[in-house]
From TrEMBL:
Entry-linked Pfam families: HATPase_c (PF02518), HisKA (PF00512), Response_reg (PF00072)
Keywords: Kinase, Phosphoprotein, Transferase, Two-component regulatory system
Reaction(s) catalysed by this chain's protein: ATP + protein L-histidine = ADP + protein N-phospho-L-histidine
Residue ranges of every copy of the Histidine kinase domain listed in the record: 105-319
Enzyme nomenclature, EC number: 2.7.13.3
Domain of life: Bacteria
UniProt name for this protein: histidine kinase
Limits of the Response regulatory domain: 339-456
Span of the signal peptide: none
Modified residues (4-aspartylphosphate): D390
Length: 457
């Protein structure tokens, strides 16, 4: 009976140890389980995030693809628009060049018969005895002059718009140019009872002489046309490193609402008087603005209605002295007996010119080109005192070829007048290089006679 308690105590002790070990194992398993659960949860979270990223990537890829397709479509549309714009630009440039070529060709074809008509009219006026015939002749002359002015103005605008007018900038002495303008326009001013005054300084500017002269001729012509009383002033003054040329008139002035329009084509002011010499073409100031823009010379307008207008042109001063510029004055001399060689391929113009020259008592020999001259030389043609040669002959020949042949083969350095309906700068340069005088068609008989008299003297 005494052993039983001992056995019970040992069993209890053994059971207590077993429970303790089991508790430790359970706790260990719980820790392992918790760790596994945490690992699984982390794995699930990571898998869930990757899936979300995958879904986002798919969505973004779709958006990128859509935007790329839109951008590609837009680029193709833009390329098509650019191609259409380029095609339109090329077409416009081609049309502009065609217009310039057409006007150049048309002007030659129009000016040729106009030239013949003017020469014939001058010869007719010399034969017409009565005042009524002289009046009719003057009316026809004014009509021809208007046609000529319109053709020349359209040619000028076409060339300026096409950008084919390339200024040749050289030193120009303004005193000589202003004196030439005064001589040219004084008779027109005096005919209207106006005073023409010039105030110049001995300034030399950098510009193109021919283009500047054209600008000032238009400005002075407008001033005379729109002035009924008072006068016109051509003034030149220094302004710092610049020179300012003013053409001032005491005419009707330009209303403020018209000042932005006077440089537009075919715009004619409302204040033109009846004695202005007929309606203007409305192209003068448009040519002025285009030409001044090509030269880089700003044009400014100041006007007061009823008081007058001032047109100002600013030019840079030149550093170098200009080349010698001669403006020959007509020399009074007779044409009687003068031998004149005429080279003109247009039959009507040649006939009219021959008739006019013979009416001035000159001896005339006329040919259509170099071939006729060569044949005449074989038959003993005498050296002419002066030659009047058309620049453009048949089959693309140039009248200067006749000049070169006579100088080379016969050593005849006879004075030459080259006539042409081509107002291109290249023609002018070639004529100058040939040391010849240039007259644009339609030829004015009075100017031709004055030039012949000067050359023969």
């Amino acid at each position: 009976m005494t052993g039983s308690p001992v056995l019970d105590a040992g069993g209890e002790a053994e059971d207590a140890g077993s429970n303790e070990a089991l508790a430790r194992r359970v706790a260990k398993l719980e820790r392992i389980n918790a760790a596994l659960m945490a690992h699984v949860e982390r794995t699930m979270d990571q898998q869930g995030g990757a899936y979300a990223l995958f879904q986002t990537a798919i969505m973004l890829e779709g958006r990128v693809r859509s935007r790329t397709e839109e951008l590609t479509s837009l680029m193709k549309s833009l390329e098509g628009s650019n191609a259409a714009l380029q095609a339109a630009k090329d077409e416009a440039e081609t049309a502009n060049r065609s217009k310039t070529r057409f006007l150049a060709a048309a002007s030659h074809d129009l000016l040729q018969p106009l030239n013949a008509a003017r020469l014939s009219l001058s010869a007719l006026a010399d034969l017409a005895p009565g005042p009524e015939a002289q009046t009719v002749a003057r009316q026809v002359e004014r009509g021809l002059q208007t046609i000529e002015d319109l053709i020349k103005a359209l040619i000028d605008i076409s060339k300026l718009d096409a950008g084919v007018v390339l200024p040749v900038i050289k030193p120009v002495r303004l005193a000589d140019l202003v004196a030439h303008l005064e001589t040219s326009f004084r008779p027109f001013a005096e005919r209207k009872g106006l005073r023409l005054v010039t105030r110049t300084h001995d300034l030399v500017v950098a510009t193109d002489l021919v283009l500047l002269q054209r600008i000032l001729q238009n400005l002075v012509s407008n001033a005379v046309r729109y002035t009924e009383a008072g006068g016109i002033l051509i003034g030149v003054r220094r302004r710092g490193g610049l020179c300012r040329i003013d053409v001032v008139d005491t005419g009707c002035g330009i209303p403020e609402e018209e000042r932005a329009l006077v440089f537009e084509e075919f715009f004619r002011g409302t204040g033109e008087g009846e004695d202005a010499g007929g309606p203007g073409l409305g192209l003068g100031l448009s040519i002025v603005q285009r030409t001044a823009s090509a030269l880089g010379h700003p044009v400014r307008l100041h006007s007061r209605v009823g008081r007058g207008t001032r047109m100002s042109l600013e030019l840079p001063l030149a550093d170098l002295a200009p080349d010698a510029q001669a403006h020959p004055a007509p020399v009074a001399t007779t044409l009687t007996g003068a031998r004149v060689l005429v080279i003109e391929n247009d039959a009507s113009t040649a006939e009219a010119l021959e008739r006019l020259l013979r009416g001035w008592d000159a001896e005339v020999e006329s040919h259509r080109g170099l071939g006729g001259v060569v044949d005449s030389l074989r038959h003993g043609m005498r050296r002419p005192d002066v030659m009047i040669i058309d620049y453009h002959l048949s089959d693309g020949a140039c009248g200067l070829d006749v000049v070169d042949h006579l100088r080379r083969e016969r050593d005849w350095f006879t004075p030459v007048i080259v006539t042409t309906a081509d107002y291109g700068l290249e023609v002018g340069r070639r004529v100058v290089e040939a040391k010849a005088e240039l007259m644009h068609k339609p030829v004015k008989p009075a100017q031709l006679r004055a030039l012949l008299a000067y050359l023969l003297a």
